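Example record for the data management plan.
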Amino acid sequence: MDKPKGNIAASDEQLYEKIVDRKTVFEGKVFTVEVRDIELFDGSHSRRDVVLHNGGATIVALDDEMNTYLVRQFRSPYEKVIYELPAGKVEKGEDPKVCAIRELKEETGMEASSVESLGQMYATPGYCSEIIHLYLATGLTIGEGRPDDGELLQVIKIPLSQAVVMIENNEISDAKTTVALLKTARRFGI
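Corresponding structural encoding:
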């Protein structure tokens, strides 16, 4: 077996990067892009292109029969319809749990008597600051959804065990949805 390359025993201090200069090259509604000149521990310099994002929240709605509720919607970057959990962008200063509860109501019409954290995940740590907060909603009551303007989606009820199979078959490929559903499945022994 080949030996791993690099200094595996490097201390955290040797891994940190010092920002020498930063320049904003794009400011949009959802994110900002920064170009950073960084200095490494050994004194060498490199460049980092970083997408700055307020973060997001997603929520697994799980009913008493172990069904979950996904949304199907067209996603422009992939030019296709995909399955996702209800989710949205956290506004500046907003509690991510409040965001998740809001998105559950807007996208599915559901409210929950219990909402608990499943942790968080880094969406794409190589270039984006987005942190997605994951939640589990139980004790559901069903109402009427009110998606945002320009947001077209279908709500789909799927047994949690079937959603896990869909992940394994790449029918569900969205990262936040995959992580949150698998954490939920593990919690319930699926």
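Summary line stored alongside the record: Residues 96-108 form the longest helix (13 residues).
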